[in-house]
């Protein structure tokens, strides 16, 4: 009888020690608070600008995992498939543009900050770029900077997308700028926009 009581007491002590390792000092297994916002100030500002720039044609989805956009090509060995998915698993894109009507993936947009401030990508992630290119998804990298104009962002994105953005069912307003830029316009915009 005493052995059974000692065994139960030892089991309770062991369970308490194990439980303490999985909780914070106060004993709370969920030590979380709500953040003030889902987006940083830069991300929120750019999202608003992006929605204004392309909202008539595309829906903007934010913080999308790379594996939600791509899949492995058929015929890969299990080992190759597993290795590719492991590399892609933790990659994330800042924004994805999808067609408003069909929800077809049109492009991925990443904010780039060469000063590496604010948590944005400073260096190109060659795996992400290569995976998107292989899947046929344009990867648009926009430098973080103040003073972007809606028309400037729209022109850069539509230039990058090229012919894929034409929708025959919609007619263009006479005052609206053309979707594809002339070579001289493209050159002027490329000096204003970083890495597209």
In a few lines, what is going on in this structure?
The chain is α+β, with helices and mostly antiparallel strands. The chain is built from 6 helices and 4 strands.
Lateral strand order in the biggest sheet: 1-2-3-4
Number of strands: 4
Shape assignment: elongated
End-to-end CA span: 76 Å
- List the uncertain runs: 163-196
Number of helices: 6
The radius of gyration computed from the alpha-carbon positions, rounded to a whole number of angstroms, is 24 Å
Q: Please state the average pLDDT score.
A: 78
The computed structural class is: alpha+beta
Order of helices and strands: HHEHEEHEHH
Q: How does the major sheet shape up?
A: 4 strands, mixed
Strand content range: 5-15%
In helices, the fraction of residues equals: 25-40%
Pfam families: DUF2726
InterPro entries: DUF2726
Protein name: DUF2726 domain-containing protein
Keywords: Signal
């Amino acid at each position: 009888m005493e052995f059974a009581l000692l065994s139960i007491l030892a089991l309770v002590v062991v369970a308490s020690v194990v439980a303490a390792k999985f909780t914070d000092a106060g004993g709370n297994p969920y030590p979380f608070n709500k953040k003030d916002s889902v987006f940083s100030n830069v991300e929120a500002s750019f999202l608003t600008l992006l929605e204004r720039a392309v909202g008539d044609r595309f829906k903007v989805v934010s913080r999308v995992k790379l594996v939600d956009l791509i899949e492995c090509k058929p015929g890969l060995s299990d080992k190759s498939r597993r290795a590719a998915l492991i590399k892609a698993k933790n990659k994330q894109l800042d924004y994805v543009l999808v067609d408003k009507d069909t929800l077809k993936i049109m492009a991925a947009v990443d904010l780039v900050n060469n000063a590496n401030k604010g948590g944005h990508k400073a260096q190109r992630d060659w795996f992400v770029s290569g995976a998107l290119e292989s899947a046929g998804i344009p990867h648009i990298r926009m430098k973080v900077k103040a003073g972007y104009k809606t028309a400037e962002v729209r022109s850069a994105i539509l230039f990058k997308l090229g012919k894929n953005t034409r929708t025959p069912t919609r007619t263009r307003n006479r005052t609206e700028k053309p979707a594809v830029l002339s070579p001289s316009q493209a050159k002027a915009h490329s000096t204003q926009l970083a890495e597209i």
